[in-house]
Known about the structure:
The protein is an alpha/beta fold. The protein has one domain: LmbE-like (Rossmann fold), CATH 3.40.50. The chain has 11 helices and 8 strands. It has helices at residues 14-20, 46-60, 81-84, 88-102, 124-134, 151-167, 178-181, 201-211, 215-218, 233-236, 249-252, and strands at residues 27-28, 37-41, 65-71, 110-115, 140-144, 170-174, 194-198, 243-248. Strand 2 (37-41), helix 2 (46-60) and strand 3 (65-71) form a beta-alpha-beta unit.
Amino acid sequence: MELTVDDEHLGRPEAQWKASGRHVGLEPLVLPRAQRVIVVAPHPDDEVLGAGGLIQVALARRVPLKVVAVTDGEGSHPDSSVAKGLDLASVRFHESRIALRRLGWEKPDILRLHLPDSEVAQHRTHLDEALANILEPGDLCVAPWRLDGHPDHDACGEAALGASRRVDAGVFGYFVWAWHWADPQGTDIPWRHCRRLDLSRRARARKRWSTEAFLSQTHPIGPDLADAPVLPAPLMRRFWRPYEVYVDEVTWT
Ligand SMILES: [Zn+2]
């Protein structure tokens, strides 16, 4: 699926999700007692956009946490001449560290796999092996939903599910791009298998502050159209909700 974001392609307005009330009847997410929580991030920002609330819960419970940064997100502005001189990989890694610190994680444990941005599916073997080495029985793996709609996200979701099953780890799927394309009234999202994690006012405020660290994605990096934000403000509202939604992959599959 091609995900286009610009002034004319802002996806599903947040007001429609809110009005749909689909989240209201969802069962609450009960975070299982996990040995560790492993958050798989296709690009440096997904870990916070999708799971910034859950990360805070894990921190509060002192559950050991690790982020697996699958790509460095260097391909976020493929046609931008400004981006070519920026070292986006370093910029985005730095932003991710700041964002995770803003969630209250003093020393974020980030394992970088350096797979090429937009080509995760072509490097599945590498990703499968890496996750098999990282995950242990009793871990909880939190990864993009495998039908989230961006090829890197889908590949990470598939890989996380496969690896978790093999080692007997739990797995929850989070949403980033599904909020962009899915129909709130339809069955695109497997609601019956979704769980809602309510965020306290404080946790919600922290998550929002954290998402504001991703300046290379939320603001123009230069004067041209190719420098426009990947995540303009209307899209960011999806990630400032007072709740997060996860697919319980085990009950769904
Ligand atoms: Zn992403």
